[in-house]
């Protein structure tokens, strides 16, 4: 008699054709949406818009469309219209259905494979429209073609009826309206600014097209807003826009557009006094954030040409070492755009271009034009060369400073800073470090912490603003050096996240203006020089309470103004409820009982506190030092009860721009930013 285990083994080995499932039509998309749009979060949701807009842009790049409109409608619907040729509606000989239905309901069906309809396109894989259809609870395609208006509607990728001709129309074009499926996306909320930024970018990349964006959502704070975009200068205008709040190092923006071996190369660049590089690369108008062959070709040519020119014109002496890529990219703002017939992207989300021929074409198309630019604009060339040579000297000085810090640490047995109160745990995944403002708060935090896994590093005063200082000057700061050694993973290009000693790095500053400034300085430091720690999700901001509300022996903490008001209402309601019950027992009026309880329970004002409701004491915390260790542990450091904000970067370009405004050397942009956001500031502590 077979045992139960053998029966189980037999059942498990009974694996045959019946266990193989074939997903038909658009079922694979609904089953694994992340494979096609990256995620089902905000990025994937907005990717639906990009797929439809990219199809309209492809018509424009092919020379058949001049106007595109994008409208955010009520009920989470989106409508995209172009004045291109219109999607074909005649019967497709292979599918025996209308070409419109074939495109909208079949993966890898489109006009981008044969090479005749589109020389270049962003929607290479031919899955864009059909994927959006599969992930939409409702979709409608309207096509104006050959004088007829054709319509087809869909539900979760399946046609409701055949394509119908419902009337006549004059011009040609396509309109696609879709509503994302709540079964796929847990939250459906389109970000107006994100949409505007993407549209602006696409119009910069496609000279001569006009794109209008409308917000017709009823409940949106931007409802009724409308923007039109048209840029005659193309990517040269884009560079000017990216540098709008930074001082350029030379007047003229370099620009070239050239076709090399069937690949259209378009590059614009300008150097600024910023210490960071901004390189935006695109292939067929698709942003490639991870770069690829076209970016590699550009960087190679840029380094070679500037080395040759600097040597030839004595900006680099004979005994000085060559410039490297890091030197020639400091302060550089560049947009690199290539358009080619057969693109090889890595994945449907197209983050990196893999075409080897794009490297050679970009290098060739850029080299001759940039050499000519330097010769024809000697003043601009001077500004560029002085910038990159200074960057080279600063890099060597910074390397010497880094080596000194790291070598000193090594010779001293990796001695940790004396001000660091380290934790007992050596497991980085379990360890956390609190970067605290000042010795007073540091002393309180050291007493409050759980020394088994919590380390405290107090910083004295405000650290150096690294947005305005090169790495060599930054490394001269004692506070920065202490932080580098405490983290144990070096800095900048040498930063090794595997050596990081803590996987929770918590910025803990006071809830006032100075605390906010110190927090911004630290965020700037981490964004510029410890970026992998942010990308890995290791950086946090502590959220100490703003208020303590007390009544008799009862205390509560509020972390926001709104939370305090809500708490007071709840406590007042509970007090009145208790008073009502007590009054009923004693046979007295409720008001008399409330007055009796208030006089018996008032505890007076604490330091810096104000009594705003009879019977309650409200204390406003302006500094961590005002809390005793028990309060600090209970409210801010106890993993079971604390609140912390995890720092992440959804839009690196936008973050970079904000840091330039807030921490850069230009005063005017910062003044405009403050004026524009002043009304949003509440309860400012000065």
TrEMBL record:
Gene3D superfamilies cross-referenced by the UniProt entry: 3.30.230.10, 3.40.50.670, Histidine kinase-like ATPase, C-terminal domain (3.30.565.10)
Name under which the protein is recorded: DNA gyrase subunit B
Chain's gene name: gyrB
Organism: Candidatus Ryanbacteria bacterium RIFCSPHIGHO2_01_FULL_48_27
Other remarks on this protein: Few gyrases are as efficient as E.coli at forming negative supercoils. Not all organisms have 2 type II topoisomerases; in organisms with a single type II topoisomerase this enzyme also has to decatenate newly replicated chromosomes.
Example GO molecular function: DNA binding
GO cellular component, as recorded: chromosome; cytoplasm
Ranges in a coiled coil: none
Alphabetic keyword roster: ATP-binding, Cytoplasm, DNA-binding, Isomerase, Magnesium, Metal-binding, Nucleotide-binding, Topoisomerase
NCBIfam families: gyrB, PRK05644.1, PRK14939.1
């Amino acid at each position: 008699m077979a045992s139960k285990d053998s029966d189980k083994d037999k059942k498990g080995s009974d694996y045959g054709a019946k266990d193989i499932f074939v997903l038909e039509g658009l079922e694979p998309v609904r089953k694994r949406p992340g494979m096609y749009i990256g995620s089902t979060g905000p990025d994937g949701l907005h990717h639906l818009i990009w797929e439809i807009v990219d199809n309209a842009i492809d018509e424009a790049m092919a020379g058949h469309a001049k106007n595109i409109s994008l409208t955010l409608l009520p009920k989470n619907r989106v409508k995209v219209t172009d004045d291109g040729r219109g999607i074909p509606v005649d019967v497709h000989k292979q599918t025996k259905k209308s070409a419109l239905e074939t495109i909208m309901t079949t993966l890898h069906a489109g006009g981008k494979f044969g090479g005749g309809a589109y020389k270049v396109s962003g929607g290479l894989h031919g899955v864009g429209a059909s994927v959006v259809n599969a992930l939409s609870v409702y979709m409608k395609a309207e096509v104006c073609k050959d004088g007829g208006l054709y319509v087809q509607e869909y539900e979760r990728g399946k046609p409701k009826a055949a394509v119908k001709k419902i009337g006549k129309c004059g011009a040609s074009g396509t309109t696609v309206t879709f509503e994302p499926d709540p079964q796929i996306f847990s939250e459906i909320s389109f970000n107006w600014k994100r949409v505007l930024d993407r549209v602006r970018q696409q119009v910069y990349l496609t000279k001569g097209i006009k794109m209008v964006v409308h917000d017709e959502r009823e409940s949106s704070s931007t409802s009724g807003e409308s923007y039109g975009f048209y840029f005659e200068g193309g990517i040269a205008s884009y560079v000017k826009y990216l540098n709008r709040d930074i001082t350029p190092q030379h007047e003229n923006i370099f620009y070239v557009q050239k076709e090399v071996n069937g690949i259209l190369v378009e590059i614009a660049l300008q150097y600024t006094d910023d210490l960071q590089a901004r390189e935006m690369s695109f292939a067929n108008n698709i942003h490639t954030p991870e770069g690829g062959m076209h970016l590699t070709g550009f960087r190679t040519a840029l380094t070679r040409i500037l080395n040759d020119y600097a040597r030839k014109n004595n900006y680099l002496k004979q005994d000085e070492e060559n410039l490297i890529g890091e030197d020639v990219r400091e302060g550089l703002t560049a947009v690199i755009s290539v358009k080619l017939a057969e693109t090889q992207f890595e994945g449907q989300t197209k983050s990196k271009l893999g075409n080897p021929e794009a490297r050679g074409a970009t290098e060739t198309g850029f080299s001759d034009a940039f050499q000519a630019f330097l010769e024809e604009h000697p003043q601009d060339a001077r500004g560029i060369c002085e910038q990159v040579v200074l960057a080279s000297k600063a890099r060597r000085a910074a390397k010497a400073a880094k080596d000194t810090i790291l070598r000193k640490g090594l010779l001293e047995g990796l001695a940790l800073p004396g001000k660091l109160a380290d934790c007992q745990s050596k497991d980085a995944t379990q360890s956390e470090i609190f970067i605290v403002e000042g010795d007073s708060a540091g002393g309180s935090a050291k007493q409050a912490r759980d020394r088994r896994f919590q380390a405290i590093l107090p910083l004295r005063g405000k650290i150096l603003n690294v947005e305005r200082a090169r790495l060599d000057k930054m490394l001269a700061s004692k506070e920065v050096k202490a932080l580098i050694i405490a983290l144990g993973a070096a800095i900048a290009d040498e930063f090794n996240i595997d050596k990081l000693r803590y996987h929770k790095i918590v910025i803990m500053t006071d809830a006032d203006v100075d605390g906010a400034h110190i927090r911004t300085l630290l965020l700037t430091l981490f964004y510029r020089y410890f970026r992998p720690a942010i990308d890995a999700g290791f950086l946090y901001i502590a959220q100490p309470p703003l208020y303590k509300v007390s009544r008799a022996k009862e205390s509560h903490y509020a972390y926001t103004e709104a939370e305090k008001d809500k708490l007071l209402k709840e406590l007042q309601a509970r007090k009145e409820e208790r008073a009502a019950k007590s009054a009923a027992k004693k046979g007295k009026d409720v008001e008399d009982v409330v007055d009796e309880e208030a006089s018996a329970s008032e505890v007076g004002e604490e330091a810096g506190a104000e009594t705003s409701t009879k019977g309650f004491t409200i204390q406003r915390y302006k500094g961590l030092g005002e809390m005793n260790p028990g309060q600090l542990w209970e409210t801010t450091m106890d993993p079971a009860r604390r609140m912390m904000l995890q720092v992440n970067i959804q839009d690196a370009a936008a973050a970079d721009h904000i840091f330039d405004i807030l921490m850069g050397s230009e005063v005017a942009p910062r003044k405009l930013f403050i004026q524009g956001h002043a009304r949003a500031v509440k309860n400012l502590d000065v």
